[in-house]
Write a structure and sequence with these properties.
By secondary structure, this protein is α/β, with parallel strands linked by helices. 36% of the residues lie in helices and 23% in strands. Helix 1 packs antiparallel against helix 2, helix 1 packs across helix 11 and helix 7 crosses helix 8. The longest helix has 17 residues. The radius of gyration is 21 Å and the shape is globular. The chain starts with a strand and ends with a strand.
């Protein structure tokens, strides 16, 4: 895997470019367009203030999640509330049986499944995540395994839940094939997945820190809807539901208190895209306000 180069000014100008394309398509007016052009000029007038950017080496998914495991359950992850609002009712409508939380992380869904009375298996490739899940859900059988290679017998499972994890594999086929293998006919595969942050790119890298303090990035992909269908249908799945969840502008772009003056990126540290938004709030709102950020699926294993 190649290194990742992050330059704060490149991100800011990129936001302006996407906002301008949306204006060109008719979403915004003349005043907005000219304000964006003037803002681009101001940004480019002082390129030195943004530094030279940062180059990061790739991290393996287990190493990245090991480093994230101690803070993963912090309440600032807005995706949790969004996918739970869609997935929990789907889970609650299904009969109790044998359930798998594939790529279980810290056991967020394993805990809910166990509370409903399911016999729960949880699997992940990160030892750090597994340690948290094992402590959180003692009733579950939790262990290390890849979601494309589950240590379970054919046709032995009633429900597979896979949340915020398929983004970490480039080819979805083996993941769907494995879910189909372990599910009984009529069993369900429930999926939530990330739509990505960067319009126009299939990549959505995440900057993380390992347990030893090494900064790097974890590779992720933003899969189009067709990729899920191309993997699910040959594996024998029927689509029972599909929803694309949209983050509202009020959720991330309208602070309840006056914002503090924006800070410049720290030299040598990876820039936070969310902190950079304060420098170009109108462009950031145009690009990320009402962004489709999650897709949720209910697949049923064909009989």
């Amino acid at each position: 895997m190649s290194s990742l180069y992050l330059h704060p000014l490149a991100y800011l100008v990129g936001l302006e470019g996407v906002a301008l394309m949306k204006a060109f398509a008719g979403e915004y007016d003349r005043d907005f367009t000219h304000a964006r052009l003037a803002e681009v000029r101001r940004l480019l007038d002082s390129p030195e203030r943004w530094g030279d950017g940062v180059e990061l080496a790739p991290l393996s998914t287990p190493d990245a999640y090991d480093g994230w495991s101690s803070t993963y359950d912090d309440p600032d992850n807005g995706y949790f509330a969004m996918d739970e609002a869609a997935l929990l009712p789907m889970i609650d409508r299904l009969p109790v049986g044998v359930a798998v939380d594939a790529a279980c992380g810290t056991g967020r869904y394993a805990a809910h499944l166990a509370a409903l009375g399911h016999r729960v298996h949880g699997f992940d490739t990160s030892p750090g995540m597994i340690a948290v899940a094992r402590a959180k859900v003692p009733a579950a059988v939790v262990g290390l395994a890849d979601m494309a290679d589950l240590p379970l017998a054919d046709g032995s499972v009633d429900l597979v839940v896979n949340t915020l994890a398929m983004t970490h594999v480039e080819d979805l086929g083996p993941v769907f094939d494995e879910a189909a293998r372990v599910l009984r006919p009529g069993g369900h595969l429930l999926v939530s997945d990330v739509r990505g942050y960067f319009p126009g790119s299939d990549l959505t890298p995440l900057v993380e820190e390992t347990t030893t303090g090494e900064l790097g990035y974890m590779r992720s992909w933003s899969h189009p809807t067709s990729h899920y269908l191309q993997a699910a249908i040959p594996a024998g799945f029927l689509v029972r539901d599909c929803r694309e969840l949209e983050v509202g502008a009020a959720q991330q772009d309208e602070p309840t208190e006056p914002p503090a003056p924006p800070a410049l990126p720290v030299p040598g540290e990876p820039p936070s895209i969310w902190a950079l938004h304060a420098w170009v709030p109108e462009a950031a709102h145009a690009v990320h306000g009402r962004r489709r950020c999650l897709v949720v699926w209910d697949f049923e294993r064909d009989v």
